[in-house]
Each structure stands twice: as structure tokens, then as C-alpha cells.
Design brief:
Elements: E1 21-24, E2 29-36, E3 40-46, E4 49-57, E5 60-64, E6 73-82, E7 88-95, E8 98-106, E9 115-123
Parallel strand pairs: 1-9
Antiparallel strand pairs: 2-5, 2-7, 3-4, 3-6, 6-9, 7-8
Length: 124
């Protein structure tokens, strides 16, 4: 059975949405990673600030961007989930618990690099 023929996992759930994320300074910004098929090393950055780095992460993790980093302007939220094949992950960016961004990758993806990013616009 090839990876594309494997049964769906929780990493396959939900339609993708890859739009820029808008957040006010007084709102909570979270990155929720769902991890499937392997233990992972997860690293996340908000601009140049490393906000998370842990090994192993088995099922998933929710990472809250520190509020002091939410300054007005455009920012990048970048993550990487490293694991040996087979691997899959689903990334969701939430603002005050509301889904604003979703992306999925796996070692069988068209571009199987284990990282992702979202553009974040912070407003006062």
C-alpha cells in the first residue's frame, strides 16, 4: 500500500485555508499542530523569536504566541515538525479559538519539506 492509498488520519481532516491571519493586539494567537505517524521535534518562531522547541512531541501541541510579540504590523509565524518517514502534520492558526488558517503536509506531499508558515497582520 503506497502512502497515498493509506487510510485517512486526523491529520487529513478539514479543508485547507491559507489566507493571511489578522489578529488584534488584545487577542490570543495560537498555533495548533496535529501530528500523525511519528514522534516529532517541533520548533516554532514568531518573526525571529523562537517560541517553542521540544522533542519528542507525539500527538500534537498548541503553542500560544507570547502577547508581547503581537506588535502592530506584518509578521511571520513559522513552524517545523521534523520526523523520519512516514509522517504527516496538520497546522491550524487560531485567533481567540477561531480557526483562521489550516495547512497540511506529509512525506508524500508534492513539496515534502517539514515546515510551514503563516503571514500574520497585527492591528491595534
Amino acid at each position: 500500500m503506497s502512502p497515498s492509498d493509506s487510510p485517512p488520519t486526523r491529520c487529513d481532516e478539514g479543508a485547507e485555508s491559507k489566507k493571511p491571519v489578522r489578529v488584534r493586539q488584545d487577542e490570543q494567537l495560537d498555533l495548533a499542530l496535529t501530528l500523525c505517524q511519528a514522534p516529532f521535534r517541533v520548533v516554532a518562531h514568531f518573526d525571529e523569536s523562537r517560541i517553542f522547541d521540544r522533542t519528542p512531541v507525539l500527538d500534537g501541541v498548541t503553542i500560544t504566541v507570547p502577547p508581547q510579540l503581537l506588535t502592530p504590523g506584518l509578521h511571520s509565524l513559522h513552524w517545523a515538525a521534523f520526523a523520519p518517514p512516514p509522517w504527516k502534520w496538520k497546522a491550524e492558526v487560531l485567533v481567540d479559538g477561531e480557526l483562521r488558517f489550516r495547512n497540511r503536509k506529509g512525506n508524500d506531499s508534492t513539496f515534502p519539506h517539514p515546515d510551514g508558515f503563516a503571514v500574520v497582520e497585527v492591528t491595534p
